[in-house]
Amino acid sequence: MIVRPLRSVLYMPASNQRALEKARTLAADALVFDLEDAVGPSAKEEARGLAVAAVKSAAYGHREIIVRANSLDTEWGEADVRAIAQSGADGICMPKVEHAAEVEAVIKLLNEAAAPATMQVWVMIETPLGVQNINEIVAADSRMTVVVMGTTDLAKDLRVPHTADRLGLQHALSRCVLAARIYNKDILDGVYLDLKDAEGFAASCAQGRSLGFDGKTLIHPNQLEAANRAFGLDEADLLHAQRVIDAWEIAAAEGKGVAVVDGKLVEAMHIDEARRDLAMAAAIAALAV
Predict the structure, then answer these.
(1) Within this chain, do residues 70 and 137 fall inside the same structural domain, yes or no?
(2) Do 266 and 177 share a domain, yes or no?
(3) I want to staple 130 with a disulfide (CB 3.0 to 4.6 A). Which of 35, 125, 178, 189 is the partner?
(4) Domains contained in the chain, number
(5) pTM of the entire structure?
(6) pLDDT digit string (tens) for 207-221?
(7) Which residue segment(s) compose the domain that 247 sits in?
């Protein structure tokens, strides 16, 4: 079983070389070198060069490295995609995706630029139209692997308040999670903007996990520990997973189709979950090597 941890995905401004260097030591599962929102127009081309150089340095261990490009309808977008294609990054993140055709256009450029077949496309869903078309977007191509919710822009466009329960966003969030699960994609929750509100951030992570997200996008290193904890597995989780597998194997050896652990029925689907938990724990451990 192949799984990959995406508990914590940290945006880093590609125009800030010091930040890119600091990211080498951070406990993020993945890093997104940002050429879009975090970079002003006058610094776009310099940031592109810094991002490519950072990726090529191969100094980030086993973390996934993604570069967020500017949209193709900007003057920088096509050059961003072509540069990222040859950078050695694990993937490219495209902002404000609203149609499958946008995914197809990016993949066409990647192929023209001889990007490796393993290069992923991450799509940001930041608008009501993106949510409306989420099924066709995630089904567009096998390169499209991760959905990233842009909740700040989405809340603005939906005209919903930024409340702790995110009530106005929950339909859109759940709709995107559902599409991701149908097409076997990973999906990341949006950022939390109040860096001083640790309690609120922890609650947002807990809610995101309850909604079905695989991890959370972050804007500051001080959010890493809480995100890793919320979307990760503790020792009790792993012990339970192993007990479920052991009980199932004993039951199978006795010719039984079910087992019981802590008074609860265990069936085949629970074994799949337990094995995934153990595989995820191994993948997380590998990041620290």
Answers:
(1) yes
(2) no
(3) 125
(4) 2
(5) 0.93
(6) 999 999 999 999 999
(7) 235-287
